[in-house]
Design goal:
Layout: H1 3-35, H2 41-47, H3 52-58, H4 62-85, H5 90-106, H6 109-116, H7 123-145, H8 155-172, H9 179-191, H10 206-218
Helix pairs in contact: 1-2, 1-4, 4-5, 4-7, 5-7, 5-9, 6-8, 8-9
Length: 220
């Protein structure tokens, strides 16, 4: 068989492999969005009409598949966040940032789970989470310096808000899908500088926060 004939046989195989990979990502997006990051990989393979071995050839780990499936959601979130950071009014930027975060969180249970957890050993997930934390710190610090947000709010408090909102989304997604907006704006009133009262419990340290997020990713 000539080199050109060999190449002609390879092209359809590559196309078939690309098509199977695409079907896996689409199926994973549906399943992760509906069932969270612990969705069954076997079910995803069935939905994509491929064998489970094919799934693992394309995505050796669950995290590899999750990152591929969530890529559009992560991009949507980061793009919306950058727009919020460009708002001149510090309080408006703070509100817009959190509203964008909660909106994307509410639209995808997999992204909801991803926001709440840390995945040690994965450079890509650490990079994404570090970028999110940088954005939160930027918008929060600017609002605090402007006197709009109480000075004792920390990154850990915002992550606590993300966690509580995630549980609320799980409970209300089919019965009251916009209930998260009421909860967000109730909490925003508590974050205003003029509403500040002394808090009896200090915020979590950075290590405590990181360890708690790792625990969520490893808990059964």
């Amino acid at each position: 068989m000539s080199a050109s004939e060999i190449e002609r046989t390879r092209v359809p195989r590559r196309r078939d492999a690309q098509e199977r990979r695409h079907r896996l990502i689409v199926a994973a997006q549906r399943e992760f969005a509906a069932r969270g990051v612990d969705a069954s990989l076997e079910r995803i393979a069935r939905e994509a009409d491929v064998a489970i071995g094919t799934l693992y050839r394309h995505f050796p780990t669950r995290l590899d598949l999750l990152l591929a499936a969530l890529e559009p959601r992560v991009r949507e979130f980061l793009d919306g966040s950058e727009k919020a950071l460009q708002i001149d009014d510090p309080w408006g930027a703070f509100v817009s940032y959190l509203e964008n975060l909660f909106r994307v969180q509410a639209g995808d249970r997999g992204f909801n789970d991803f926001l709440s957890r840390r995945f040690p050993g994965s450079e890509e997930t650490e990079r994404i989470h570090d970028e999110m934390c940088r954005q939160i710190d930027d918008v929060l610090t600017r609002a605090q310096k402007a006197g709009a947000v109480r000075a004792d709010i920390t990154l850990a408090d915002i992550v606590n808000l993300i966690w509580s909102n995630g549980r609320m989304i799980d409970a209300t997604s089919t019965t009251a899908p916009n209930a998260w907006r009421r909860q967000l704006f109730l909490m925003l009133d508590a974050y205003r500088a003029e509403a500040a009262h002394a808090i009896p419990e200090p915020p979590m340290s950075e290590k405590q926060l990181y360890d708690a997020m790792v625990h969520l990713s490893t808990a059964d």
